[in-house]
Amino acid sequence: MSFKSDIEIAREANKKPIQEIGARLGMTSDDLLPYGHDKAKVSQAFINSVQGNKTGKLILVTAINPTPAGEGKTTTTVGLGDGLNAIGKKAAICIREASLGPCFGMKGGAAGGGYAQVVPMEEMNLHFTGDFHAITSAHNLLAAMIDNHIYWGNELEIDERRVVWRRVLDMNDRALRDVVTSLGGVANGFPRQTGFDITVASEVMAILCLATSLKDLQQRLGDIIVASRRDKSPIYARDIKADGAMTVLLKDAMQPNLVQTLENNPAFVHGGPFANIAHGCNSVIATTTALKTADYVVTEAGFGADLGAEKFMNIKCRKAGLAPDCVVLVATVRAMKMNGGVAKADLGTEDVAAVQEGCANLGRHIGNLKSFGVPVVVAINHFSGDSVAEVQAVIDYVETQGSEAILCTHWAEGSKGAIALATRVAEIADSGISQFAPLYEDDLSLFEKIECVAKRIYHADEVLADQSVRNQLKDWEAAGYGNLPVCMAKTQYSFTTDPNRRGAPTGHSVPVREVRLSAGAGFVVVICGEIMTMPGLPRVPSAETIMLNDLGQIEGLF
Amino acid sequence: MSFKSDIEIAREANKKPIQEIGARLGMTSDDLLPYGHDKAKVSQAFINSVQGNKTGKLILVTAINPTPAGEGKTTTTVGLGDGLNAIGKKAAICIREASLGPCFGMKGGAAGGGYAQVVPMEEMNLHFTGDFHAITSAHNLLAAMIDNHIYWGNELEIDERRVVWRRVLDMNDRALRDVVTSLGGVANGFPRQTGFDITVASEVMAILCLATSLKDLQQRLGDIIVASRRDKSPIYARDIKADGAMTVLLKDAMQPNLVQTLENNPAFVHGGPFANIAHGCNSVIATTTALKTADYVVTEAGFGADLGAEKFMNIKCRKAGLAPDCVVLVATVRAMKMNGGVAKADLGTEDVAAVQEGCANLGRHIGNLKSFGVPVVVAINHFSGDSVAEVQAVIDYVETQGSEAILCTHWAEGSKGAIALATRVAEIADSGISQFAPLYEDDLSLFEKIECVAKRIYHADEVLADQSVRNQLKDWEAAGYGNLPVCMAKTQYSFTTDPNRRGAPTGHSVPVREVRLSAGAGFVVVICGEIMTMPGLPRVPSAETIMLNDLGQIEGLF
Hints:
- Chains A, B: ATP binds at residues 67-74.
- The structure is a homodimer of 558-residue chains.
- The first copy, chain A, has 558 residues and is α/β, with parallel strands linked by helices.
- In chain A, strands 1, 2, 3, 4, 5, 6, 13, 14, 15, 16, 17 and 18 form a 12-stranded mixed sheet that branches.
- In chain A, strand 24 (547-548) and strand 25 form a beta hairpin.
- In chain A, helix 7 (131-151) runs antiparallel to helix 10, helix 9 (214-223) crosses helix 10 and helix 13 (333-339) crosses helix 14.
- The interface between A and B is large, with 73 and 72 residues.
C-alpha cells in the first residue's frame, strides 16, 4: 500500500463554500467576513447574538511528552471532531493558527495529517487571514512609540536601560535576537541594546488569545509593562498612549476564523501563542463562540500535557470560566517505545517490553490530568507498523491506571477511524462526571504556585530559585499581581528541565532561572532552562525548495 | 454651510457588494476572491481570460509640485472616474495602496476626499488585503536567508561588509534606520551594521508593481542583487535560493484588489512603491487588467509631474508597453498662490497677482508633459475660498500655454462636479491624438539619461557627479545594465533639489549624491539630496488619538 502525502490529500479535498460550513453553526452570509471562498471571520454581531445559547461540551485533546516519533495531537483533534459529526453529533474543533516563519525553516504545517486535516492547508501555513501580521504591527507600533517618546524628550522619564518591550517578526531570523538600535546620530535617537522575538512569542499574541472582547483587549494592551523608570516604577503601554491604536490594528484579528476539515466539518482556527513563555492555546473568543454554536467542541493544547494541558486548565479555563468535560490523551506505540529506550531508527521492530517500559510516561500524565477532576480517555493514534501485541500492551497498561485506551485510525481512514473514540468521549462528556477545578487557588503565593506545578505535575522534589527571583515575586505580590497564575516555560520533552530524561523521572529539582511579568496577558512567566524566543533557520532551510509549480500550486511547504 | 469630514462621508457610503462591482467589469463571483463584503482580489484565471479583449483608453492624473495647501490628485482621479461613468462611459480607476506606518504618524489616508473617495477607507489605510504584509515577509525572508547562509559557512563567499539587502517594516520607526545585528555570541551569527526601511521602499514592492506575471515576478526577485564578494562580483537572491519561496509568499499579493468609489464605480487599488527611490505608480497588472475590462482607465502617479509623471512614462509605460491617451494635470488656486509667494496662513485672501505669478510652475509642467507627445488638460480642483477672478486667472494662463483648464467641484459634488472634465478628457482620449514616446531611448548611456531628465524636465543647466558615481554607472553598463531607465530620487517640492525653490526656477544644477542598482525592478536609482527611506513619528503621533469609539468605529485615523 502506498500512502499519499498530506499535501496530495489536501489538494484533493472537496471543499464546500465557507458559507455552507457557517450555516451548520447558524451563521448567515452576513455573519461571515469571507477571505476567499474557503475562509471567513465570524462577525462580532453574530458572536454577540449567540451569548444566550446553551453551552456545548468541551473536550480537550492533549498528549504525552512529544518525541521525534510524532504523536498526532492535531490529527487526533481533527479526527475526533469528524468522528463526533459522523455519529450524528453537532461538533466543531478549535485549534491554533500556524506561525509563518518556521514553515521556511524545517517545521511542517500545523493542520493535522492524512485524512484528518483542516483545509486550506497552504494558506493556513502562510498569511491565512492576516492575524499574525496584525499582531506584528500592533506590537511594533508600541515599540516605535516608546523610542519616539524618548526621542522627543522622555517626559515619562523612561530609563533607557530598562525598556523591556522588544520588537517582533514572524520569521526565523537569529541575526535579530540581539541588536543595537538607534545608531547613526542625533536624528535616529538614543542607541540601546534590544532584540526581536518571533511574533508568536509576543505578549500581544497571548493577550489576543485571552481577551473576551475588544474592550477587554484594549484594557489588557494598556496593562502591558514596557519599561521602568530609574526608581523601577513601571511604565505601561497606556502611559505611551498606544493601547487605542493597537486595538484598532487588532480589530479584525480578534474575530475568530472559520475553515473546514476534509470532511466539511467546522473548524475554528484562531490565535497561536507559544506554549512555553505563553499559555499555548487557541483564543478564548473562538472557544467560547464554538461552545455557543456547537454541542461538542474539541480543542487542543500545546506540547505535552505537563505544559499544555496544565496551562489550559490553570490559565485559560481559570481566566475564561471554562471547564473541560472530558480529556483525550494522545499516545502512540512508537512514542511509548522511545520512552522505553528504543532509538528512532529501531522503531520498526516489535518490542512489547519497551512499550510497557515507556508507558510510565503515559501513566503519569493520566494521573496528573485526573488531579484536575477530569475524566481521561487515551487515544492510541495508530501507525501502520504498530503490532497487535504492542497496541494491546498500551491498552492493558491504561486499564491498570483506572482509565481506558481506544485505538484510532483516523489518519488513514478519517472519521471512520475515530468512531469508537467519538462514541466514548460523547458518553463521558454527556455523563457530567467531570468535576473540574484548577490545581491551585488564586490566593496562593506566586512561589507556592510554582511549587504546586513542579511537585504535582512534574513530580519534582523541590524548586530552586535565587533570592533575587524570590524577591521579584514578592515585589509583584506587593504591587497587586499576586493573584495571577504562573506560566511555566520549560522543555516540552521531559517532566524535568532536562530534555533527555524521558519516561516518568523522580528525584529531580526545578531550577527557576528568571521570572517575567506579563501584566497584560495576566500571568507570571517562570523560566526554567534555556527558552528560545527567536528561532534560526537550519543549514538547508525548506525555503530553498518552496516554490510554485507549473500548475501554480505550492511545492515544498510540507 | 458646514462640511462633513472625509470619514463622516465615507461612513455614510452606500456600498454595494463587491460582486456587483466586479460584474460591471465582466467578473463572476468565482473570478473574485472576497476579503469581507467590500474588497476582493481578481483571480489569475480571470486575468488570463481577458487578454484577448480590446484595450481601453489610459488617462494619467498628475499634479504640479505639491505644496502644503494640498492639490487633491487622488480626489481628482476618483472624481474623473466617477465623472466618466456619469456620462455613460465604462470607466475604472487605478490607484496605489496606502502604507500603514505613516497613518500612525501624521499622514492622512490616501483614498481621495470629500465626495470623491474610494471605500472602505479605514481598511485601505490599515491592513487592507495584506499585500504590504506579504511584501514585508518576502523581503525579510531573503534577509534572514542571507545571514543564515553566512552563519552556516558562507559557501558563496559573501563579503559581510557588502550586504546591501536591508530589512523592512511597515512602520515609522527611526530607531531601526541604523542597527547592528547578530550580537550576543556565536549562536547569533556575525555582527554587522545594517538597518530597516519602510516596506514601501522595498525593491520587492517595486518588483511586484512592475511584474507582468508570477513567472516574471520570480525572475525579477531572483535578479535582486543582495551583496557582493570581496572581488565585488554580485550575489543575487537566486544564489541564496530565496526567489521561489518569496514568490510563494507573494502569490496572493500579485492579484489586483478591487474596491469601489462612493458612487459604486470600480476601483483597482494595488501596490504602492515610493515615488523617490522607486517609480511611484500602482501595479502594472492592475492597470493592464483594468484596461482589458473597462473602456477608460484613470490612474495617477506619485508626487508632482516632474517626478511621478516622468517615471510613469519613462519607467512604467516603457516597461509595460503602455501609452497614455490623455494627461490631466491637477492644480489649485491655493497652490498657485503659494508658488507665487503667499504664506499658507494668508491663502484666504484674494490675490490674483500671486496666482498669476505662481502659474509659472504649472506652465513648466504643461510643457514638460507635452514633450512626451501627450495631450494635457488642466483640472482646477476647486476650494471653497477660491475667488472667481483667481480661477479665471488660471484658466487664462493655461490658454496662453496652448492647453485648456477646466474647473472641477467633485470634492463637494462628486461626479456632477467632474462632468465637464470627463467629457473633454473622453473626447481627447477618443480622438487618438496622443503620440506618446518616452523621453529617451534605451541605448543612451546611463549618465546621458540622467542629464536628459535633469535638463528637459527639471530645466537644470548641468548634472554634477563625482568620478566614483560616473565610474559606477560605467561599471553597470559594462555588466549589461546600461539599457535600464533611471529612477530619479529628489525632493518633490521643487523642480530643483532644493525644496524651498518654488515656481519654475532656472540656473540650477542637479548634484547626484549616490546611484543604486535595482536589478530586479529594472532601474538605476539616482539619489539627489537626502532621501529618507524610514520615516519617524512626530512629537505627538496620531496613534495617540486613534481608537475605537463606543460604536466600534475607528476614530482619529484621518
